[in-house]
Each structure stands twice: as C-alpha cells, then as structure tokens.
Amino acid sequence: MPTSKLSGPQSPTAVSTIGLRKSYGDKTVLDGIDLHIPAGSVFALLGPNGAGKTTTVQILSTLITADAGQAQVAGHDVATSPDGVRAAIGVTGQFSAVDGLITGEENMLLMADLHHLSKREGRRVTADLLARFDLTEAAKKPASTYSGGMKRRLDIAMTLVGDPRIIFLDEPTTGLDPRSRHNMWQIIRELVSDGVTVFLTTQYLDEADELADRIAVLNNGKIAAEGTAGELKRLVPGGHVRLRFTDPAAYQAAASALREATRHDESLTLQIPSGGSQRELRSILDWLDAVDVEADELTVHTPDLDDVFFALTGDAGTPEQPKEMAR
Ligand SMILES: Nc1ncnc2c1ncn2[C@@H]1O[C@H](COP(=O)(O)OP(=O)(O)OP(=O)(O)O)[C@@H](O)[C@H]1O
Ligand SMILES: [Mg+2]
C-alpha cells in the first residue's frame, strides 16, 4: 500500500487518514474522513452524539478496522502495522479503564506490567506519574473510592505509562466540574509542551477553543469543517466591529460616514458587520479618519464556536441560524 503520499514533506505527521470509511449494518458512520495532524499539535474532533468520534479513535488506535481508506499513525499503517501503531500511542477511552476493585497504584503497576517494564522501572514510573497527577495520597486506596476527576486523572496517568508520543483522549473532561476540567486542560498542555501529540474528542466547544491547534467538526459521517478556532469562527456570519462614542457629535459624524453601520442611538454605539480582518479594520479606521472622529472604544466581535457548531450540525434540532444572526 503506498504510504508516501500520506506524510507531508515538511513537519513530521502524527496522524493522517485518507477516505476513511466505516459502516455498521446499513448505517454509514464514517463516510470518507481525511485528516492530517502534525506531530506535537493538539487536534480536536468535535461532533454531536453518535457522530462517529469514538469510532474514529477506535480505528486510529487499532481497536477496530475501517471498511475502506488509509490511516497512518506515527508513521505506521493501522491496517498493515497495528503493532507499530500500538507501541507509539496511548488511549484514554470515553469510558474509564480504571479497575475500581484495586488501588490506583495497583492499576498503574498493572499497566507497567502490560508494557513489560521491569518491577523496579514499573515502580519508578508509577510513583512519578501518581505524583504528577496529584494521586500519591490516594495511591493505596481502592480506585472505586476516587472522585470522577481523580479517576479521570488516573486514567490518563495509566495511558502515559508506556511514554506514548501520541495520545488519544476520548472526551477527557466529560462529567468533570469546572475546576477539574481546568486541571485536565493544564495536564494536556503539559503533555503538549513535552512534545506529545494529542488527539482529543470533545463535545465542549470551549475545550476545543482552549486547547486545540486545529479543530474538525464531524457531522453525518463527514468532516463538515476543519481549521483553527479562528478560521472556523470566520465561516459563520455574525462577526462585527463595535464603535462606542461618548461625544454625540462624534457619534453622528461617524454614523453618517459609515453607511453600513447599525446605529444604537441610546448607547452611542455603531455596529459594523466585519470578519475582523486587518484590512476591514483599516478601512473602518480610514473612514473615521476621513471625517476626523475618534471612537472611544473599538471592539471586534467574532462568533464563538457554538455558532459554528450549530450552523454546521444544524439538522439535529439545533437552531438553524447562528446565535449572532438571530439577535
Ligand atoms: N459496535 C457497534 N455496532 C453498531 N453500531 C455502532 C457500534 N459502535 C458504534 N455504533 C454506531 O455508530 C455511530 C457512531 O458512534 P460513536 O460512538 O463513534 O459516536 P460518538 O461521536 O463517539 O458519540 P458520543 O458523543 O455519544 O460518544 C452511532 O450511531 C453508534 O450507534
Ligand atoms: Mg464517543
């Protein structure tokens, strides 16, 4: 199978797929998925329930096989070299792999055994990771007594035992409270700063916005959109520049200069539809300069990822129009 076209010429590629397909019975779950994820980056796969996020993770981590298409992970083809893939990756599934009947430490040592670490090395790695994930104190307690956040941290600690270069996190923060979510984000950022590639799935748009270098939105078996958070936000209408004035005369002058602006006379603000690009901002400022007025405040408003998500996956009972447009 030719694999050369899968790897980019410049930066090493952690994960790439071409035309990945998967069906269950007559239900097409993945209908041709192309992905390209550079090493050392964070990639977020977003999608509503049942979109195929877990299925994608399972294919890339060799737990199931695709019906068609190619996928390379860490330079290995998932179909022809699953062992090579497995040696390079760690997977934290959507549902916890933690055994509640044994202690956190025992769960870790079990993973060390699975990775064929020596007893001594297994102990060292276990102690290190438990400390790093703030679980040293709880190490000797049965994992069933852990809180959701602690279990999730243990799950990820277990994933890291084999020192994987690529990790798959399937909904790493679902069910966590805001503080635990932020802790998890911090953990993920630290992994990335160590050079690990992170492939995460999430239903939380703020999570993707916060963590991911690139985001793909999965809908109806296809990638509905892919790009940075900023690029995705620019896909939906609703972006605008808001100019606020304190001097009514300046406001009037600006309002007559900027024809396409929506006026808010009480608050002396003007709202101008704009994608927020440098060129658009400059033209607004040029207009203001031309009539010699200065705004007291200029703010750029871009639609958030929620708008993008609803616009792209709008057939599932979600609003047809992005929020910004409905306002
Ligand atoms: N083993 C299976 N047999 C039959 N259908 C399956 C199987 N696994 C998944 N599916 C179906 O494939 C579709 C995609 O499931 P998947 O678990 O990948 O979605 P998801 O995006 O991870 O959803 P969620 O956000 O709920 O975790 C669903 O319709 C699901 O019912
Ligand atoms: Mg899932």
From TrEMBL:
Localization in the cell: Cell membrane
Top-rank EC class of the record's enzyme: translocase
Domain ABC transporter: 15-245
UniProt GO cellular component terms: plasma membrane
Alphabetical UniProt keywords: Antibiotic resistance, ATP-binding, Cell membrane, Membrane, Nucleotide-binding, Translocase, Transport
Membrane topology summary: Peripheral membrane protein
An individual GO BP term: doxorubicin transport
EC numbers, comma separated: 7.6.2.2
Protein name stated in the entry: ABC-type xenobiotic transporter
UniProt source species: Streptomyces triculaminicus
